[in-house]
Amino acid sequence: MINLLLSSMMLTIEAQKVVELRMVRLAWGGREGWAEAQSMVTEKVSAAGEAMVTLSFGGSPEAVIARYRERVAANTKRLAAP
Fold first, then answer.
1. CA distance 43 to 57
2. Its pTM surpasses 0.85
3. How far apart are the first and last CA of the chain?
4. In whole angstroms, what is the distance from residue 15 CA to residue 69 CA?
5. pLDDT digits (tens, 9 = 90+) for 25-74
6. Per-residue pLDDT for 82 more than 90?
7. Are 39 and 46 in contact (CB under 8 A)?
């Protein structure tokens, strides 16, 4: 239970960087802003579906959070690239 709590807290902290980077990209507008808005919605629907499948087949909440953290890390890396 402690691992779940700590992982959730880390996910919250890590996701804030993605929110910041996405807001900047959206504020710039243009083609990149539009693409980011579309990507954001698509990724959220996909991640929710993946979480649902994981839990439906007996996966743990810890596994779901670990996967979300992987996605957040990938988005941070992608959005922070020059």
1. 21
2. yes
3. 39
4. 8
5. 999 999 999 999 999 999 999 999 999 999 999 999 999 999 999 999 99
6. no
7. no
- Going by the DSSP 8-state scheme, the letter that residue 58 receives in this structure is T
Distance CA 40, CA 19 (A): 10
Q: Within 10 A of 25 (CB to CB), how many other CB atoms are there?
A: 19
Structure tokens at 48: 């929710």
Q: Tell me, what's the pLDDT at 40?
A: 94
Percent helix / strand / coil, the chain, rounded to 5: 90, 0, 10
Contact 69, 8 (CB under 8 A): no
